[in-house]
Each structure stands twice: as C-alpha cells, then as structure tokens.
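Running this now, will post back.
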Amino acid sequence: MMNTTLKTMLQHRSIRKFTAQEIDEQTLDLILKAACNGSTMGNMQLYSIIVTKDKEKMQAMAPFHFNQSIATNAPLILTFIADFNRFNKYCEYRDADTDAYSNLQSYHWAVIDAIIAAQNACVAAESLGLGICWLGTITYNADKFIDPFQLPKHTLPVACIAVGYPDETPELTDKLPLEALVHYEAYNDYNRESIDWLYAEKEANTNTKKLLKENNLPNLARIFTERRYTKADNEHFAKVIEKVMKKQGFL
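Update: finished.
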C-alpha cells in the first residue's frame, strides 16, 4: 500500500536551515506546475504565486516576517495570493457581472484555492529532495505585503513557504493520533477524559517538557494562550486583516 508519494508526505518536517545550493529552473518549474494542478473552485484557479529569489527583496520584506532568519536564508520564497483580480478582469472583458465576487464568500473560495496550491507545492518540493517551511507571518502582516508585491484590489497574500535544500534533519514533529482528528458519519465531541487521552503523548514528550521549563508554565495549553497566540495579539491582527480585506475589496 505504501508508495513514494505517501512516504514523502509522512516524512514531512519543517526545514529552517538551507544549504547554499540554488534551485534550478527545471526543478522550480516542476514545483510550480504541481502547485497549479490542484483542485480549485469551479476550475477558476483563484490564486497567484509570487516567486522571490532576489536577496535584496527578501531583506526588504524580512521585517514583515518578524526578521526570521528563514525569510532571508532560503534560496526561494513562494507567496500564494488569494486572487480574484484576474477572474474579475476576465468577466469585465467578456461583459459579465464584474461585481459578483466582491464579497467574503469569494475571498473564502480564493483562500481555499491558494492553500491547496501551496500544499501541492510543498509536497512537490519535498518529493524532489527539497525542504520547506511555512511562514505564518504572512497572515499577521498581510497588509505590509500589498505595496512590495504591487497587489491590486481583490488580491491578498494568504500563504508563504520558504524552499531550499535542507542543511538539517530535525525530528518529525509530534502529531495528535488519528482519533483526535477523524470523525465518522458525524462529529464526535470531546469530553475531559478524551482530551486527556488524546493529548497525553504530546504533553509527555521531551520537546513539551522543555517548553514548559523554558516558559515556567504548567501545561502546553497555557503556553499557547499566554505566550504563542495570545488574545491581545489575535484581536489586534484580526483588526488588521479586516482592514486590509476592506481595502482590497473583499468586504
């Protein structure tokens, strides 16, 4: 039952250190073709991909990625844009309704399309021996990327991945068991007993214990709510994304 594709997917790990080896055009082209061959709403392909290889541009945008080293040490950054601009132009030039997609539902479609394309690119890159890492900062500072990328209305960056040849082999990230994520026929809600069981292995692993010691907190949940993704930060960035969605014509 196991095949090469499944092996690639089951060996996924985030790579944050890359060698100096460049990614040749043929390899990049294969990754981009795979990204653009995924499922998409109505076959509209509501996304665009911005390829960044120029180190000066990476440096200029590094502050928007909170100056993570990975934002500049990767040979390649792929940014995935939820894009209704292109299809709106198509409608305009074919005398179709140009105001049909200036709404939250349309943004939702475009986000899904862009994320599917991004994941396809990740699997393709890893299958070719490259490493990848998602840069979640794109969702925090989406407004900051509008000008550098010269994004028109009805476009918004939603995903970003660093790509390169790995210069490290980190351990696989611990994942919850399938029972935590998979439901059959209907949603099976959780109680305290099931939550304790489903998170037991994650709470007991070495990395979690290290984090607890570093943060001086009693459990992983408290690290998330008090250190990593706080209410104050979430509410701030929610206002940012709402503002930029209005600016870009999705609200």
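Residues 104-127 form the longest helix (24 residues). More later if anyone needs it.
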